[in-house]
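User: Design a sequence. Structure:
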């Protein structure tokens, strides 16, 4: 390919209640709430909640749109992203099995592609996997809730449900420069990105008999996977490469406040974003010590504070002001 992909930048999904989502990611999974803001697209105010490590480094970020208050439901199915897969050290899997049990979260333990995994669900129904990653992972774990030795490191990757593999195989290998690593029956694993990246495992699950999943914003569905393309110049190069293959619907760059994004619907249904961060990252509107403690309103929503204040309140570990 022309240009390069580093690895995952963030994973974004539509959940139910904001409190339920906060409790799941912060109180159960032990991630840090690094930013509370609103979804930049659309006509109605929707929270955009970011979770990650201390500074919200690329590949540690999970971001949620809570849609229950608005009443928008999604439908899970095929031709759609299916599972969010998170890395922990390989010997931490027992800790996580116990922790999920203690919190009353049903889970199954299994093995796939040579890694031990826990399969469970977000309260809104989205599938999650905790993957015991045997590889070295230098990402800084957030250790305020879960001890560092067991803590989630960030994205391992995603699984996308497809009717057939060929179109997405083409996209993963040609458009994203990845390689097929392994196949186990209906499951296939690809690796994308470079040695400095994380969240490089993209998996497919062949599920030809499932109905089509929805792509619009709606509770209970994964919305997109963002890949880190590091710089504006490389983002443009990757876009030109993907467009040159015939995927002409790569969007214009969008200013997301903390990073700049382009979007492209891949043929297996996964919405792909290519993003690069700003130098300030999440400290552009909050100090490092206060990350996640304000309701951060983007300039173009500033005159709609009264609407935003109607969003359900979230009881948090940190003190939220404004
Ligand atoms: Fe995104």
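Assistant: Done.
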């Amino acid at each position: 390919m022309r240009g390069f992909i580093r690895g995952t930048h963030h994973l974004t999904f539509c959940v139910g209640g904001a409190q339920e989502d906060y409790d799941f990611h912060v109180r159960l999974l032990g991630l840090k709430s690094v930013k509370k803001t609103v979804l930049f697209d659309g006509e109605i105010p929707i929270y955009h909640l970011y979770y990650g490590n201390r500074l919200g480094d690329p590949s540690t970020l999970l971001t949620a749109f809570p849609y229950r208050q608005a009443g928008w439901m999604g439908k899970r199915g095929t031709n759609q992203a299916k599972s969010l897969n998170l890395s922990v050290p390989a010997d931490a899997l027992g800790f996580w099995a116990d922790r999920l049990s203690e919190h009353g979260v049903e889970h199954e333990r299994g093995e796939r592609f040579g890694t031990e995994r826990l399969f469970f669900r977000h309260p809104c129904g989205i599938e999650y996997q905790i993957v015991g990653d045997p590889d070295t992972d230098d990402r800084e774990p957030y250790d305020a809730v879960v001890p560092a030795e067991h803590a989630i490191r960030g994205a391992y990757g995603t699984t996308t449900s497809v009717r057939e593999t060929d179109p997405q195989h083409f996209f993963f290998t040609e458009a994203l420069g990845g390689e097929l690593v392994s196949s186990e029956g209906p499951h296939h694993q690809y690796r994308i990105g470079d040695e400095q990246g994380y969240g490089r495992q993209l998996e497919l699950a062949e599920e030809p008999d499932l109905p089509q999943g929805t792509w619009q914003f709606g509770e209970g569905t994964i919305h997109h996977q963002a890949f880190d393309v590091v710089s504006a110049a490389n983002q443009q190069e990757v876009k030109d490469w993907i467009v040159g293959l015939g995927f002409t619907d790569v969007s214009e760059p969008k200013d997301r406040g903390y990073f700049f994004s382009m979007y492209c619907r891949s043929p297996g249904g996964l919405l792909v974003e290519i993003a690069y961060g700003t130098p300030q990252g999440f400290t552009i509107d909050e100090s490092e010590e206060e990350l996640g403690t304000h309701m951060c309103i983007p300039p173009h929503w500033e005159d709609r504070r009264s609407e935003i204040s109607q969003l359900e309140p979230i009881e948090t570990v940190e003190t939220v002001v404004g």
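The pocket of fe (ii) ion is lined by residues 10, 12, 224, 226, 261, 273 (CB under 6 Å). The chain has one domain: 7-308.
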